[in-house]
UniProtKB/TrEMBL annotation:
Membrane topology: Multi-pass membrane protein
Organism: Ictidomys tridecemlineatus (Thirteen-lined ground squirrel)
Gene that encodes the chain: ANO5
Gene Ontology biological-process entries: plasma membrane repair
Protein name according to UniProt: Anoctamin
Domain Anoctamin dimerisation: from-to ranges: 63-280
Compartments in which it is found: Cell membrane; Membrane
Lineage per the UniProt record: Eukaryota, Metazoa, Chordata, Craniata, Vertebrata
Length: 904
């Protein structure tokens, strides 16, 4: 009995000391003993005791079983019954052994203790020695002294009321410090109060991921294999993620003292806080600088949209106030003027003649967006976009200072070789910097994939254009159908018609176009990702840049092609009665509404922009919610088990490496709607503002509640997206100038006002009649004349051409050339004025604010001084009585300080 008790105690001791190996834990659960019944009884006792210990730990615990070591990362895997199960198990064993050799501590949760009964969890803790070593390798800056520079707030929010502000402890969770790159040999220099909390959790998971991405797991085919990404790609591990701090709906429980996730949810992710400023420093500390800078950009863009939205709303109010007094609408609606003007049919044979006053309502609606304020707003937005980009550069510079990103170097994991690249490479090449052999793929191996990629992108862009042509054909085809049952004798009587065939066709065509956009976008996202992988980019940065180019080019064409068509092509190449232009020699080219094409461009913009934003927000909110619910529902098969913190996070949606890419892409496409065609739709900034207020909270809610915690990554700017924004800003000046000149009716009205009007009291009276040319009905070819004969001898159409009695009938008259010259002059003048103002503003506004420059100089000086004092103190302690050597070292250190001052 004594010997048996000794065996029991020894085995129990082994389990309590090391539970990091799943095989060992399995062995301890089944004690081998000569006496079968006592062993069974003891096994039952041991299982109950272990279960009690496990349940004693809170399900929200983020610590190892000892309650002391914090979990910095989690790996999960499922037993694979396929033929490569042994290979994967061997990879995992080698990988985990190598992780332990780096100093990381592992604790493995057996699948029998998991909620679904099939998933193993490998919990990883980075001890102090590992953290200090790799903090030095990564050049992480840590505090050395509290800053003596007073904190200032430069956000436009400082002028708003108090309720908009967040509490100081939330907005600024920690004081500002002078920082220096961490060195493990200078640990006493840094403000280390508690080793457990010195490194924030974002830095800890970043360090662990750095180790995971470089840890080898074996040699295969003569090549050394390494990195968690390759293991995830091969399904050796099913997931790898850092843990959230705790539940988002309740504060931290002991032994944890901080739950930043809860703080973020309470002060940032709740929709009731839509009017509040964002806790940017807390976002950065929790999610890392890369995600933090996205929310800084989105918030700054939203603040700037507030100005544009107010001005755009003022322009709309101006149009509403003058809608009833607009002379053009008055003439069109007047039964004695517009009611007497018989217009030529808008399609062949099926369409009938119609009176101009049937478009009374449309002409009034058109004036809401086509008035004198349109020119002002187009010029204003050209200046606004310059101010936005210049002030953003300043905001970015301030952010670099506040977040210690001034000496930022590209994130190592972005420059790391992709596992797919290594797997496909059969060649090796000496790296001239590291002098090591690295995987290398010759250009001739990539050229076929580049050609395939270019051909695919071109094909899909052509497909977008083809779909747009198909929508045009749809509008041309159904217009006659609408006209056949909507146009009646009412259009030839003095009766107001509120829903015309043009309006019906435009609305249905815009809705159909939006549906086609969504369908094409869904398929292209999958294909572009596949094509980019086939190009075999070397690093993650190359992969993201290649995907960015493909996605932006496609979405630019997909979302904007219909707007470009309506703005610059529709109604411009129609011809005239008797000599119309035909599409594919079958369909007559589309004509603009009698109220002008601007109202159709406004309709197109409203449907596509609003539809995209509503669909995007619904998709972003519902997609992770439904998938997480379904994943949790499948996982909770053993309700008696402890649904632990790592299991809860495991069942959340993955944000992924391209999560931010799609967020930026969505914002940039919206920026295009706000800038490229804003002259036709002054409410675009207001719609974008409302969307972004919701977007910020939706993104915050997703990241805080529905997604696993992303691995923290650094970034000092928005990257290539900034160049794209600059390009769109330049193009927007030209597009808005052309919209005002050719799509709007402002220029023809001004030409008539100054050159052709004879009415001094009402200069625009008679403009409608002047802008319509006369056509002799007898000159209609048989295939275009209406099937039903009328007693009219002439009809009117929108153009500047000679009347039928002129010897050069139906050719453009002199007024046409005057209007064309005025349009081209306006484009040249507007572009030069706006570009001149843009260049002046860019020259006047410094990229780095003066106060930031002074703070940078102050911090640089103080950091050098602190390091100087530290080294002197250390030298004095080490050198002791050797005063001569000490004096020389002092002189050398002081010369360094003087050199730093001189450079500052």
């Amino acid at each position: 009995m004594v010997e048996q008790e000794g065996r029991r105690n020894s085995k129990e001791f082994i389990y309590s000391v090391d539970t990091s190996d799943s095989l060992r834990s399995a062995e301890t659960c089944f004690l081998i003993d000569e006496e079968r019944m006592p062993a069974k009884r003891f096994n039952l006792f041991l299982k109950r005791r272990l279960m009690f210990q496990k349940r004693a730990q809170s399900k929200d615990s983020i610590f190892f079983r000892d309650g002391v070591r914090q979990i910095d990362f989690v790996l999960s895997y499922v037993d694979d019954i396929k033929k490569d199960a042994e290979l994967k198990a061997e990879r995992r064993k080698e990988f985990e052994q190598n992780l332990r050799k780096t100093g990381l501590e592992l604790e493995i949760e057996d699948k029998r203790d998991s909620e679904d009964g099939r998933t193993y969890f490998v919990k990883i803790h980075a001890p102090w020695e590992v953290l200090v070593t790799y903090a030095e390798v990564l050049g992480i800056k840590m505090p050395v002294k509290e800053s003596d520079i007073p904190r200032t707030e430069n956000s436009p929010l400082r002028y708003m009321l108090g309720p908009v502000r967040l509490p100081q402890e939330v907005k600024f969770p920690r004081p500002e410090y002078f920082t220096a790159q961490f060195s493990r040999h200078r640990q006493e220099l840094f403000l280390i109060e508690d080793e457990a909390t010195f490194f924030p959790s974002s830095s800890r998971n970043r360090i662990v991921y750095y180790i995971l991405s470089r840890c080898p797991f074996g040699v295969e085919d003569g090549k050394k294999r390494f990195g968690i990404d390759r293991l995830l790609t091969s399904n050796t591990y099913s997931s790898a993620y850092p843990l959230h701090d705790g539940q988002y709906w309740k504060p931290a429980e002991p032994p944890s003292t901080v739950n930043e996730r809860y703080t973020l949810y309470q002060n940032w992710a709740r929709f009731s806080y839509f009017y509040k400023e964002q806790p940017l420093d807390l976002i950065k500390d929790y999610f890392g600088e890369k995600i933090g800078i996205y929310f800084v950009f989105l918030g700054f863009y939203t603040e700037m949209l507030l100005i544009a939205a107010v001005v755009g709303l003022a322009c709309l109010i101006y149009g509403i106030l003058l809608m009833d007094s607009n002379q053009t609408s008055i003439d069109i609606c007047d039964p004695e003027i517009g009611g007497q003007l018989i217009m030529c049919p808008l399609c062949d044979q099926v369409c009938d003649y119609w009176r101009l006053n049937s478009t009374c309502l449309i002409s009034k609606l058109s004036h809401l967006f086509d008035n004198e304020s349109t020119v002002f707003f187009a010029i204003f937005m050209g200046i606004w976009v310059t101010l936005f980009l210049e002030f953003w550069k300043q905001r970015q510079a301030r952010l670099e200072y506040e977040w210690d990103l001034v000496d930022f170097e590209e994130e190592q994991q972005q420059l790391q070789l992709r596992p797919e690249f290594e797997a496909m490479c059969k060649h090796r090449k000496m790296n001239p910097v590291t002098k090591e052999l690295e995987p290398y793929m010759p250009l001739w191996n990539r050229i076929p994939w580049y050609f395939l990629s270019g051909a695919t992108v071109t094909f899909w862009m052509a497909l977008v254009v083809s779909s747009m042509v198909a929508v045009i054909v749809y509008r041309l085809s159904v217009f006659a159908t609408f006209a056949s049952f909507m146009e009646s004798e009412a259009t030839l009587q003095h009766v107001k018609v509120y829903f015309t065939p043009q309006l019906a066709t435009s609305l249905s065509g815009s809705c159909l176009n939006f549906i086609v956009i969504l369908i094409l976008n869904f398929f292209y996202e999958k294909i572009s990702a596949w094509i980019t992988k086939m190009e075999i980019p070397r690093t993650y940065q190359e992969y993201e840049s290649s995907l960015t180019l493909k996605m932006f080019l496609f979405q630019f064409v997909n979302y904007y092609s219909s707007c470009f068509y309506v703005a610059f092509f529709k109604g411009k190449f129609v011809g005239y009665p008797g000599k119309y232009t035909y599409l594919f020699n079958v369909w007559r080219s589309e004509e603009c509404d009698p109220g002008g094409c601007l109202i159709e461009l406004t309709t197109q913009m409203t449907i596509v922009m609003t539809g995209k934003q509503i669909f995007g927000n619904i998709k972003e909110a519902i997609y992770p919610l439904v998938f997480n619910w379904w994943r949790r529902r499948k996982a909770r098969t053993n309700s008696e088990k402890l649904y632990s913190r790592w299991e809860q996070d495991h069942d959340l949606e993955t944000f992924g490496q391209l999560g931010l890419f799609y967020e930026y892409l969505e914002t940039v496409i919206q920026f295009g709607f706000v800038t490229l065609f804003v002259a036709s739709f002054p409410l675009a900034p207001l719609l974008a503002l409302l969307n972004n207020i919701i977007e910020i909270r939706v993104d915050a809610w997703k990241l805080t509640t529905q997604y696993r915690r992303p691995v923290a990554a650094k970034a000092h700017s928005i990257g290539v997206w900034q160049d794209i924004l600059y390009g769109m800003a330049v193009v927007s000046v030209a597009t808005n100038a052309f919209i005002v000149a050719f799509t709007s009716d402002i220029i023809p009205r001004l030409v008539y006002y100054y050159a052709y009007s004879t009415n001094i009291t009402h200069p625009l009276k008679g403009y409608v009649n002047n802008s319509l040319s006369v056509f002799l009905i007898a000159d209609f070819p048989n295939h275009t004349a209406p099937s039903e004969k009328r007693e009219f001898t002439t009809c009117r159409y929108r153009d500047y051409r000679n009347p039928p009695e002129d010897k050069d009938k139906y050719i453009h008259n002199m007024q046409f050339w005057h209007v064309l010259a005025a349009r081209m002059t306006f484009i040249i003048v507007m572009e030069h004025v706006v570009f001149l103002v843009k260049f002046l503003l860019a020259w006047m506004i410094p990229d780095v604010p003066k106060d930031v420059e002074e703070r940078l100089k102050r911090e640089k000086l103080m950091t050098v001084k602190i390091l100087h004092d530290f080294e002197l103190k250390k030298l004095k302690e080490n050198l002791g009585i050797n005063s001569d050597l000490f004096s020389k070292q002092v002189m050398m250190e002081e010369s360094k300080v003087q050199l730093a001052k001189s450079t500052i």
